[in-house]
Structures are given as structure tokens and as C-alpha cells.
Amino acid sequence: MRLHEYQSKEIFANHQIPVPRGRLASSPEDAKLIAEELNRPVVLKAQVLVGGRGKAGGIRLVKSPGEASDEASKILGSKIKEIPVRRLLVEEAVNIQQEIYIGMTIDRDSGSTLLIASGEGGVDVEEVARTSPEKIARVYVDPLLGLKDYQARNLAAEIELPRPLWRSFISITKGLYQSYQELDATLAEINPLVITADGRLIALDGKMIIDDNALFRHPDLVEKRDFSAEAPEEIEAQKFCLEYIKLSGDIGCLVNGAGLAMATMDIIQHNGGQPANFLDIGGGASAEKVAAALRIILQDPQVKTVLVNIFGGITRCDEVAIGIKKILDQIKTDIPFIIRLVGTNEKEGREILASANLETADTLQEAAGKAVQKSLEYAP
Amino acid sequence: MRLHEYQSKEIFANHQIPVPRGRLASSPEDAKLIAEELNRPVVLKAQVLVGGRGKAGGIRLVKSPGEASDEASKILGSKIKEIPVRRLLVEEAVNIQQEIYIGMTIDRDSGSTLLIASGEGGVDVEEVARTSPEKIARVYVDPLLGLKDYQARNLAAEIELPRPLWRSFISITKGLYQSYQELDATLAEINPLVITADGRLIALDGKMIIDDNALFRHPDLVEKRDFSAEAPEEIEAQKFCLEYIKLSGDIGCLVNGAGLAMATMDIIQHNGGQPANFLDIGGGASAEKVAAALRIILQDPQVKTVLVNIFGGITRCDEVAIGIKKILDQIKTDIPFIIRLVGTNEKEGREILASANLETADTLQEAAGKAVQKSLEYAP
Amino acid sequence: MSILVNTETRLLVQGITGHEGGFHSVQMLKYGTNIVAGVTPGKGGEWVLNGKIPVFDSVQTAAEFTGANASIIFVPARFAGDAILEAADAGIKLIVCITEGIPVKEMLQIKRAISHKDIRLIGPNSPGIISPPFTKVGIIPGNITKPGNVGVVSRSGTLTYEVVYALKQADIGTSTCVGIGGDPIVGTDFIDILSHFEGDSQTDVVVMIGEIGGLEEEKAAVYVANHMTKPVIGFIAGLAAPPNKRMGHAGAIIEGGVGTAESKINALKNAGIQVAHYPEEIPELIKKL
Amino acid sequence: MSILVNTETRLLVQGITGHEGGFHSVQMLKYGTNIVAGVTPGKGGEWVLNGKIPVFDSVQTAAEFTGANASIIFVPARFAGDAILEAADAGIKLIVCITEGIPVKEMLQIKRAISHKDIRLIGPNSPGIISPPFTKVGIIPGNITKPGNVGVVSRSGTLTYEVVYALKQADIGTSTCVGIGGDPIVGTDFIDILSHFEGDSQTDVVVMIGEIGGLEEEKAAVYVANHMTKPVIGFIAGLAAPPNKRMGHAGAIIEGGVGTAESKINALKNAGIQVAHYPEEIPELIKKL
What we know:
The complex is a heterotetramer, with 2 copies of chain A (380 residues) and 2 copies of chain C (289 residues). With 380 residues, chain A is of the alpha+beta class. Chain A folds into 3 domains: 21-92, ATP-grasp fold, A domain (Dna Ligase, domain 1); 96-223, D-amino Acid Aminotransferase, Chain A, domain 1; 232-375, Rossmann fold. Chain A contains 13 helices and 18 strands. In chain A, helix 12 (346-354) links the parallel strand 17 and strand 18. In chain A, helix 5 packs across helix 6. The longest helix of chain A has 17 residues, at 166-182. Chain C is an alpha/beta fold and 289 residues long. In chain C, 36% of the residues lie in helices and 22% in strands. Chain C contains 10 helices and 14 strands. In chain C, the strands form 2 sheets. A 7-stranded mixed sheet of chain C has the order 3-4-2-1-5-6-7, with helices on both faces. In chain C, strands 9-8-11-10-12-13-14 form a 7-stranded mixed sheet, sandwiched between helices. The chains are: A alpha+beta (380), C alpha/beta (289). Chains B and D meet through strand 7, strand 8, helix 4, strand 10 and helix 9 of B and helix 1, helix 4, helix 5 and helix 8 of D.
């Protein structure tokens, strides 16, 4: 689960990381009021969970409360990459001398958290990493020991931060690591962390991603989740703990297991078709979950065929069959279904489906071939 | 630093450990008021940092607010093992069905925290450990992983706690471990943890000892420290970070290093004398610290001779000499001093002391012999 | 001979009284696995699976009383990390964690904590291990495999079934099939299992099934090129997957251009590994060896 | 030959610009120790000790530039734990921590964290190591020892000086003297050092100086009885000490009746170790061997 910039900054502030003064505004009046309170030039920042906000016009520097109100009314209600802007962060503008990058995430390879810093932060940091990898400093954090002062200090030295800022940098880095640990984040980053014209470090933008598997420890975050900023079908999927990603093709896929779901998409493509989605119902899915998954697939207007590929292990084919039957009883659709059930309780599953008039397949290759064929034939 | 029962219980309560309702009283009126509020029989418990409070009359069960006031006026102002009672914890009385012991401390041998529990808690738990060691359950906590649920559960099973209480026991044990970790304690114990007549677990008494080396992380505890409940010469010693323990002999010792201080006491005893104290000025002591240490020694009316034994490493003999000179300039005393300085800056130290008319010694055996001799000869 | 499990395996089931644990314990028993005990805290003293299997409150006591030397974990995600450490602490040498959804940072800690012990953890989020015809420690359906000389190792769950089933349909048998688990942090990696297969007299060919993300397959390819004498057939899922939802700049910087299906397929090919286009092509490639 | 340190030792001083670090660096240099670098974060680039020793911001860079293979730590207690881990992380194999007052639980974690690495930590709260006549890594005054064939190992600081000084006064020299540190949790125990002395060709006799508390001396006694061929002389401080301020019931239960001076002296005697009554008796006992 991704956090909004303002949420990340709230968390940062609670961990002694300096952030610009400011507040959230939901209306031009709010924006004006906050600008008046701050009594200096402010920045309006659209709170939407997509990258490239700035280039899409979601960030504006304004000089007066009146201008803040005017610009806020333009951004609020507009859409950035399909997501409506409902809230703005209104913050004091900061005089930037240098942009630094600092971030941390899980490094599968070393089995630890990897901290990265660069003296050349900002939106182009990935380009810096590609062209000048020596400008990226790295530190591995032992998962049992946590981040130590010397590690943060070594980063400061490596990115050639001026010495008077080391103490502040160490404190910010430790604050970021604590935020990352306490929130069960898989990513925490400050980009840019700026050196201001008057020689202070301040976190100008922040990003955090929380491990969905650890959300049960953070009911407050789940409660405050802003669904308006996310795609509705993905919200629905998450409600049922389904992994769903919408794609651009026309063959809806329902599969158990991420690897098999990808292999199913691959074989559709290999047969000349295009998957409409990635959908993993996980292990041991109930009939309700299967029904919910199919409902999401069928809501996609591009879908011309549905391919169900279940290889039962912890998932039982009979439960899946019950789910399919349920949804077909509820929703009348002429979209063709290709069903392949193999594994645990396969026989029982097939028996349940025997009554319904559904196309089945024995092999994955056969199922994919049929699905591609049906999708080409389908005319609603 | 030892915490009072009421402090430990405050900490426990903050970590979801059930404790009896109650508050601290400094006067009979307070005690009466609290008893009225609780509106049931209460226990008055003297808050003094010594063992065996109960046997010394520091714990009383009373049935009415009036009785609470009467008994409180008897205990308050009385002394338990030389310590004046200034505060009472007034708590609701609890109906006890079984007493359990649970405690944790540093286990040097395994390099970890050792948790101990017994189904036969209470004041005689050490006796239980001696006579029926199989009734003591143990769990070692990995210092990097911390206490895990299964470990607390295994303790519950081993002490044959009724299953309906396991969940509560695990929560209490984890709460105690968290208290211990957060407060940098070297000991945390609940004794007794009682099963009440109505089948709940409640912590009836608690003890915590905080690592003095970690007190810098707990300024609040240092601030709230109750010096009235501790011996004044030990308070004075702690102010200067001196390790001082008063003993019953008549030869005051000032030594650098705990091992050498003990060896000095041992050799005094070996020569037929008795040390008046253990005093370790630590490593690298300043002249001020040495002076403070001598002031504490000289305040002990039993002292008939002072033996200073310094073997300089990180401690410099010249600093020690300056400290000795300082105190002798300040305090006029006829108590004989035996001084032995060896090691770092020994020559400079001897030169500083050359002017003062002090007995010196080359070997420890010689110093101890002289000190014992002088103590026998001394007549004030 | 099989790898990791065999007829000497004395299996303990953590979470035996749960829905999934109970169901799959029955399946394992039917297959022939020697289940000696179950653990469910608070239910010690009960007997389950038609009164055949004793339940204990802790792994410690279960291991003491039954001599269990392997454990399989079916407990819910938020207790599964604790269950792994409990098994490790009780001296269990092979721990197979089926549970999916353990927070990744908890796994970082667990993996580090057991890394210095002589313990093999398979998973989490693993379908387990099957060695036809008699032993399975996991949830891989028994009827989709047959005994044979092909070792299978995979990061996926159900995709693994697809592969061993395709092998069986083509009359090719499996020596041992190991699902190492699909989570970012798992106890055992491809190289560990490949080295076991290299040393296993029953295994003549190895099938390795990877997917996008991480660098495991790339590292395994180097291992195969340098240390394996037996032929390896590969398959990588995720060619049609959209570019990874990148984990911020940090993820992008760490992974750089690697971790994609293309990079993995290239790495395998460069190591001399034949790569199938879809699961059912694997038996065809094996037959051509 | 000496143990742990020798003329190949390339020493780094953590906290070289501090009061104690500076003072004792001068002493070590004078004694002949090969100090190659100092570390004080924020002072990298300076040169100290009459411009002879370069200062670095981190152990990592210091070790890279100077090839330091040992480190001595003089930094204040609240930073000393971090300093130990920094040295360990930078690949320093011998770390001597002089600092006193590190919180005990921090040491539990540090000790556990480095326990799987090939690192020897001496201390904390140690006077260090001296190998007369040329190498000292610590604060033991150089002029109180002379070269010889007696190995000394001790938990105490100044009591150690007392002993080596008494040896010198009796014209007995020291091969290496190691102060393992007086804190409850230290990196290296008696047995480690005893085994080094047993294997050291220069050492013919070993003096072991213990004190009350813990079980180290009792365990060492068992080791001496079973594994040492060289004679060992013991001394235990604390016979006149009042009964330990017991750490609650838990401490009393854990330690039981052991850990007292009597129990330690008995353990040593039972292992065939002669025990001196006071430090200056040690040379007498050695001369009688």
C-alpha cells in the first residue's frame, strides 16, 4: 500500500525529520488560508498516488494567498493520469541549494535492507545511477541489528556532504529507517532531501510503501486509506485479497498462483492473443473469492473471453467450480468461458461444472489455444 | 538503579500487565482517601528499597478507610532497615488462589536474557529453586530476536498454568520483557503474579533494576529518583560516579579498579584487618573525583586509617596526588594515610605528594601491613 | 535416492488442527508420508486424523516424544514466523513453510537468525517437497507425479504442478520436486537445490522454473555453467507481464536492467540451459536430450 | 612468539583525537606499537601525534588506506558499541575495547552479532594486551613488565598491573598479558586465551586472575584440567567482599551457590591450579614450580 506524500511527511516529522511547514487543503479557501498563515510563497502539491505529478501540472509555486486560491481551484478536481485530485498539500516554498537522494528498500540478494544515497538527488536520480554509478552510495543494514550511526555517517562521507550537516543527516537517515521499520515499509525514500540556501537539511518530498502482508499491524493506515486515489477494480480486488492488475488485452484470466498466472498470460501471448489482466486468486481460495474475481473480470468492457486455469494444491477445484457456478447464476453473460481444472478435488470440481454448459480443456496449451480462438470469434 | 514497586507497576501497566488499582499516599489522609475511592479492603505497602518489607511490618491489610488512616500513620515515618518510610502504595486487596513467579535477568554464561518462571512463586521462590529445581522453568532469549510468543507459551505449559490463562500469561510475559528492554533493565520480575479467586492473572508485586550505564537514556527516571530511600554516602558516591559500598571494618580504601579494590580488601583481611568500605574510583579519575571519594571515606566515623592504592593505567598518578592534596588542604584530619602509587605518571604523582607528610608504600603487601598496623595504633 | 526427504523423514505438522493443516495432513498420510505428530498450542493431548496422530502444545515436546526430524507449517501468516523459529529452536533440521503472507521484514530477520544454524528452511509460500511415490512434505497433489529421474525446482507453486503434471502426461517421472517458495525472501535458493540434485544418484535431468524479479535465476545460471554436469531445462514465467511495479527509485536503482524475463532467459541460455516457451514444452525438450 | 598481537600488528586507534585516546596513543607509539591510523568522525584528513598518524572519518577508509588489521577503541561509552560494530564491519580482525560503561544489553547484542564472524573482540572495559618489549595494544603501562615466559590473563584492569609488576619485581617476564575486561559480557573469555597460551611457544607458565561473579573461572578450571599441559597459577579477588548485591530472585536462582570467591578458588584447586592469597605471592609460587 502506497502512502501519500502528506502521510509520509507526517510520519517523518514524528521521527525528527525536518519537513516544510504546511497542511492539507481540500478547497481553494483552505489553500488561501494556509498560504496566509505561512505568510510567504507556498507550493501547492496534488496528493495523487502516481509518478510524474510535477510534469503533469500537479505542483505549483505561488507568491500570494490570492494566487494560492486561484491555482488551487484549477488543480482541485482536475485529473492527473486518470486520478481525480481531491487534496493539495500547501507548504512553504524552500530555497534549494542542492538536492540529495536517500532511500531504502528490501534487497533480496543480500537478504537485508539496502540504503542508497546520492549527492545528486531529484527526479533524475535513476539516470544518475545509470550513467554515474559511482555517485550512488550504498549501505546494507543487518536485519537483526538495524541501522547504526556509523553506517549513516559513512553514507554522508561518501556523498561528500559538508561536515556541518553530518549530524543532521545521520538523524534524518535514522529517522527514515525508524519510520520504515515501524510502519513495516518495503520502501521509504526522501527525494529530494534538500540543502537549503541557509544551510539546513529538509525533506521536500517523501514516499513510503507499506508491506500489504503487515497491514494488519496498522489498522489506522487501513482506515485512513484514500480509495478515491486508486483504480476502483483494484480496490475491489484488494477487498477480497486478490492480486489483480488490469492490462490492455481482451482475454480475462483467473488463475491460482502468481507464477502460473504469468505463465498463462505468456502462453496466451505465445498463441497470438493478449491477456486482459493478471489475476491471482492465491492459495486456498473460497467460492466467494472466485466469484468476486470473476465479477471483476466481467466488469472490464474489453474482455471477450474468460480463461480459468486452476491447478489445485491448497486450492480445491470444487470450491472454484462452486464460485464459477455462483457467478454464472448471478450474472447473465454471453462471454465464452474456457475452464481448466486440474489437481486437488478435480473430479468433484468437474462434476459441479458438468451441469453448466462450459468449454473445458485438459492442457494449458489447449486452453490457451481455445481462449485465443474464442476471443477472435466473439462478437457481443 | 533500583525502582520502587510503584514505579515498576506504573511501567507494567503501560505494557498491558494487569496490576491492582491503587495510588501512592504520603500521608494518613491520602491513604484514607484512596481507601474510600477503592471502596473495599486495601493493602498499604511501604515504598522502601529494601527486601523483607513484609516481615518488617511494611505491608498491612486493612478493612476500612479509618483503619487505613490509622495504620498509615504508624508506618509513615517509621524506619524499615534504617530507611525512613515516606510513601505508601495503597492498593485494592486481591483474593489469591495461586502465586506464580516470573522474572528475567542477564545470564552471563549464555550471553542472553534468561526468563525464569515457577508455579510456586512468592517470597520462598529461592527455596523452591534450591529444593525442587524441576519446578523452575527457563527460557533463553536471543538478544537480537527478542522474546517470541512460543517461548512464553512454553513457560506457561512448563509451569502447568491452566490453559485458559495462557493468552494472558503470554501477554504479561511479553509486556514484562518489553518493560525490561525499553527501560534498559538488568532485572525485571513479578513476584507474585497471582491467579485470583475469580481466575485472572494480576501482578501483585514488581521489581526492576536499571543498568546504571544506560541511565543516560532515561533522564526522567534519574529526575524522579527518590534519594530519601537510599543511604546518603552512596548517593554522594553516585553523584561522582564512584562505586562505594560501606562495610563494617575500620580501614578506608580508595582504589582504582574493582578487581584491585577487592584484592586490596582481601589483603587487608589477610593481614588481620578489616576494610571499612569498597571504593572503586574507576578509570581515568580526575582530582575532583579523588577528593570526593576521600571526603566520603573520611565521613565514616569508624575509619581509623586510609589506604590509597592506585595502579595507574588510564588513571594517572599525578591526578590522584592532586586530589589527595586538595582534600588534605580542605579537611584537617589526624587519620593516618598510607599511599601507594604505581604506574602512569607515578613519578609526577610522588613529587606532588612529597611536600605533604604522608606514609608511602612500594608493594601492596607492605601497604596493607602498614595500614593494619596504623589502624591498630590509631587513637583519636 | 531422493533429496531432502525420504522414508526416514519423521514429520511434524504445525497447525495440524487447522483447516488446511488437517486437509493436507490427510493427503500426506494417504501418500505414505510418516507423520508422527502435530502441534497446536492449547490442544496438546488430543489425537487427530482418526486418532492416529498425537497433538502437542509445543514443537519442543512433540520432537522429544516422537523423534520428529522435519516440520511442515500451516499456521496463519501472523503466527507462521514464530512457528518457524519455534521449530528451529527445537532442533528440527528441515522446516517447510507452506504459509503465504508472512511480512517480508519478519522473514529477513528469521532468515538471518537461522542462517548460522544447520537448518534447512523451505519457503515460506512454498508448495513443499514431493518425492514420488511415497513421501511428500507439502501440498503438491500426489496423483500428478510419478517416480522417475527428473529433479524439479521452482519458485512458483501451481506452476510447478503444471510442470510435473506435464512430465507425467509425457510419461516422465520425477525424482524429487522442490518448491522453494514465491516470496522475495525464502530460506533456500535455487543453487542449494541444484547442488543437491547434482549429487543425487536418482536424478539425471533437472528442470528449473523461475519467474521475474530478483536475481536468483541469473545466479543459478552461473552456478549451472560452472558446477553442474547434469543437463538443466529452464522455464521463466513473466514474458507477458507488464513492467514491474517498481519499488520507487531505490528498487529501480538496485535492480537496474536485470530481473526481467528477458534478462533471465538470456542468462539461462548463456549458461547452456535450454529454455521452454511454455510448461508443456518441457517434456518435449527432455525427450530430445 | 606472542599471542594476539605481534610486530605484524597494524593498529588503528578509534577516538585518537580524544583525551584518553591521544594520551595512550603516545604511550603505545613510544613502546614501539605500529600505529598506522586514527579514526575520529568529522576529523578525517588531519594528522596527529606530531603529524605522524593520519586521521580518517571511518574505519572503512582507514583500513583501506593503511592496511590496519587491529583496532583499539577509546571512544565514550555511548558511542563505543557503534565503534565496535564499525570496526567489525570494516573487516578488522582484532578489536580491543578499552571503554568502560557500555550498557550490558548493548553488549549482548554486539557479542551475538559478531559471534559468527572471524573476529576477536577483547573487552570492553579491558586494559588491553601487552607483549613486551615492543607491542602493546592497550593502556597497560609499559614499564611495569619485562619480556619473559609467563602468560597472564585477567578479568581485572589494575589488578593485572599489580600482578605483572609483581612478576617484574621478582625478575619474571611476561610473554603476553591479556586483560579480557571486567564487564559481565565481554567478547573473549578465559578459555579462549588459555588455549592461545597453551599453543604459544614462548609461554611456559600461565597466570589467571579472576574475581567474584559469573562462572567463567569455574569453566576455565575445567578447561585447564582437561586441556592444558602448562602449569597455571590462579588468583581470585573478592574473598573479603560482602555477599553480592543479588540481582533479585532471578539472579540468585541462576547463580545458585556458585560465583563466590570460595567456589572459584575451590574449582581452581580441584583442577590442580595453585591459588595465590595475594598478588605478590604469585611470583613466589611460580619460582617454586
